[in-house]
Amino acid sequence: MSTLRGAFQEIDSFFENLRGKKNVEYREGQATMALDVLDALKNREILLIEAGVGIGKSWGYLIPLLYASKNKDNFKGFIISTSSIALQEQLKEEINKLSKMLDIDIPFIIAKGRNNYICKKRLDEQLKRDKDNGDLQEIKRNVVKGFIDKDDYSDIPNKIWNNINVNYVNCTNCLYKNDCKYMLKRKAFPKAKYVICNHDLLVEALKRDNNDLILQEPSILIVDEAHNLETKIRNSYKERMNKNKIESLILKISFMIYDDDSDVLADNYLIQSLNKVFRMISTKAKYKYRKNAKRYVEMFDEETSGFDISNKLKEEIIILIKQLEYLISEANRYKYFDKKLINYVSILKSYIDIFKDMISDNSKNIYFVSFIASTKEHINLEYVQKDIYKEAAKLLSNNNYGKVFTSATMTTTKDNYNYFANNLGLNDINGISVVKEFSQPSPYDYENNSLLYFSDDCVNPKSLDHDLYLNSIANKVSELIKITDGRTLVLFTSKADMKRVYEIVTREQYDFNIMLQDDDVNTDILKNTFKEDVTSVLFATGTFFEGIDVKGESLENVIITKLPFPVVNPIIEDKASHFIDGLKEVYLPEMLIKLKQGAGRLIRCSTDKGIVSILDSRYKDYEDTIVEALPFTNITKNIEDVESFANNKLSVSKVKK
Q: If you ran DSSP here, which 8-state letter would residue 557 be given?
C-alpha cells in the first residue's frame, strides 16, 4: 500500500498546522499515535498503544483512518470497536467534526447489539398481557414511526426494556421479519464500509469470520477501551447447563421410547440422580461462596461461585452418566428413531460429555455455578474453556488487516504490555508483528495540579474485626470530604462495605449532599446529579471505577477505600495456577489496571485539579509498583499536605476566602 505515503505527509501537516491555534490544541502524543496507527494499517501489524487521559486518542486513530479513506481503491474500510455506547456517540460527533474539517466524507454506521433494539413481536406480546399499560402503548406508537433504538427513549425502566428488546428472539422464523426495522439494520451492517460497533458484536463477528462479519474484510480494526476485550471474549464462550432443561430432555426422550407414561413419571431414577447431582453441586458452591465471602467481602456482590468435586460427588456424577448412557442405548434401539429423537439424543450426548469432562483429571473447562435471581438458592451450572487466550489468538490471527488496541489502562508498569498481550494470546500469533509502542503519557499537568495521598491511619482490610476496619475507613472518608468541602467520588470494591460506611459517615451533618449508588437508581441519572450538584459526594462501586467522566469543580477528590484486587473466583484461580507466583503475575496486574481506572476519574481536562487518596494500608507492600503505574509526581503520607494542597489549589480555597 505504497499509496499511503501521501497520507503520512498529510497527517504530519495536519498536526503541525494545529500548533498555535486557539480553538484546537496540538498534542504531541496524539500526532505520534496517528502516525503509529497508519504504520499498523500499512504493514498489517498489531499495534498496542496506551494513551493517557487527555491524549485525545480518538483523533489519534480517526485522523489516519480519514486520510487513508481517500485512497478509494486500496482502503477497504475500518471497524472501530468500543465497550460503551457513550464512546460510540462521542466517535459519531468526532467523525462528523473531522469530516467537515478535512472535507472527507465518511458514511459510517453505528452497529449495536441485539439488546439495544425493540422487538415488535415481544412488544405486541407484552401489550397483550398488559394492554392498559400507558408506557407500552406510547412505545408502540413510536415503534410504528420507526423508533426502535434504545437511545430513542430516555426513561424506559429496565424491567420493561428487558421484556421487549430483541434478546432471546429467534429472528429467522419470526413472522415480523420482512418488515422488522432491526433486521433491516442488521442486513445493512455487512454492506457498510465504515463501522462503529461494541466489543460483544465484534467478538461474535470474529467468531463467524467471513461468513457474517460486520465488515467482510476491513483494512484495519481499531479496538478502543481494549482492556475490556478479554472479558468480552471469555463471556462469548461461556456455556450454561440448566437442570430443568436436562430434566425436560430426559422426559421427552422417555415419553417417546417407553409405552407406559405413568412409569416414566413415577419411577424415574435418572431424574432423581440428576436432582441429587445438582443438589450436591449447589451445596458445595454455597459452602465455598460463604467461606470465600468471610475472607473477601467483595464476594457478597458476586452471583457466581466455584465448587469442589469431592469423591462422593464424583461417584454420583458417574452414576448419572451411566444412567444417561443407558437411556441413549434404549433410544438407539427404538424402532421409530426419527429426526426429532436423533436431535434429542445428540443434545443429551453433549451433556454427558460435559459431565465426563467435569470429573476428568485433565478437564478442558472451568466449572462454576451462577445463582439464579440473586437468591443464592437455585443455580445454573456454567463453564468456559480454559486458556481462553488461545481462542482469542485465533479470533485475532487474520493477517489481512492491521489491528490497533488502545486504552488509557493497558500497561501494569511503564511500557509493560505483557499482561494485556498474554491474555489475548497476541504473542502466540504467527506471521503478524506485534508493535508495543511507548505509553503516551497524559499531557495534563499532574505535577502542579494533583496530589496522591497514602493514608496510614486505617485498619488493615484483612483485620478479623471488620467493624473496626469500616469505622476507620468512615472516619478517614469524613475527614477527607470535609477538607475539599465535598466534591468527592468515594470508590469501594464492595457494596456491603459501601453501604455500611455511608451509614456511619452520614450520621454527621455536612454542608453538602452525600449520595449513594443503589441498585434501584439509574446510573446515568446518578452521574448527572453528581455533576450538577457541584459540592456533592458520591459513594460508588463497580462500573464507576471507569464509567464516569466529570470535569471541573464537581470532582476534586477521589478516595479509593481499598486496593481493587480481583475477587477470588474459578477463572482468576485458573489464570493464577499457571504461574509459580500467581499473586505477582495475575492478581497484582489486575489490581493495578483497575486502580489506574479509578485514579483516572480525577483529572479529565487540562484545568482539572485534585487529590487521589488510597486508604488501604496494604499499599506499603506494593508502593513502588503503584507509584510507577500511576501518573502522579506529588506523593504524600501526611494529612497536613492534603489540607495545604486543598487550601491553595482547590475550590475550597475560594469558599474559605
A: E
What is the C-alpha to C-alpha distance for residues 609 and 626, in angstroms, rounded to an integer? Answer: 20
pLDDT value at 562 more than 70: yes
3-state secondary structure at position 45 = coil
Instruction: Extract the C-alpha cell encoding 105.
Output: 466524507
Instruction: Decide: 139 and 96 in contact? Cβ < 8 Å.
Output: no
pTM of the model: 0.89
| Best CA proximity match to 162, nearest among 150, 144, 177 | 150
pLDDT at 515 exceeding the cut of 90: yes
pLDDT at 266: 45
Q: Are 634 and 447 within 8 A, CB to CB?
A: yes
Indicate the residue type of 308.
D
> For residue 1, what pLDDT is reported?
43
Could you give the count of Cα atoms lying within 13 Å of 656 in the half-sphere of its Cβ?
14
Cell numbers describing residue 521: 437508581
Which amino acid, one-letter code, is at 544? F
Is pLDDT above 50 for 393? yes
- pLDDT, tens digit (0-9, with 9 covering 90-100), for 151-173: 777 667 767 877 888 876 667 77
Q: How many CB atoms lie within 10 A of CB 19?
A: 9
Least confident range from 23-27, 558-562, 642-646: namely 23-27
d(CA 237, CA 574): 16
- SS3 category, 637: coil
Q: Could you tell me whether strands 46-50 and 402-407 are parallel, antiparallel, or unpaired per DSSP bridges?
A: parallel
Bridge partners, residue 340, by sequence: none
Q: Which residues contact 201 (CB under 8 A, 6 or more apart)?
A: 81, 111, 112, 113, 214
Q: Which residue has the cell 503516551?
A: 440
How many C-beta atoms surround the C-beta of residue 395 within 10 A?
18
Dihedral, 441, 444, 445, 446 alpha carbons, nearest 10: -60
Q: What is the pLDDT of residue 647?
A: 94
Rounded to the nearest angstrom, the gap between the alpha carbon of residue 11 and the centroid of all alpha carbons in its chain is: 33
d(CA 635, CA 454): 8
Strands 109-111 and 239-241: unpaired
Q: Which residue ranges form the domains of the chain, and what is each CATH number?
A: 2-114+186-236+389-436 (3.40.50.300), 115-177 (no CATH), 240-385 (no CATH), 446-656 (3.40.50.300)
Element (H, E) at 523: helix 523-532
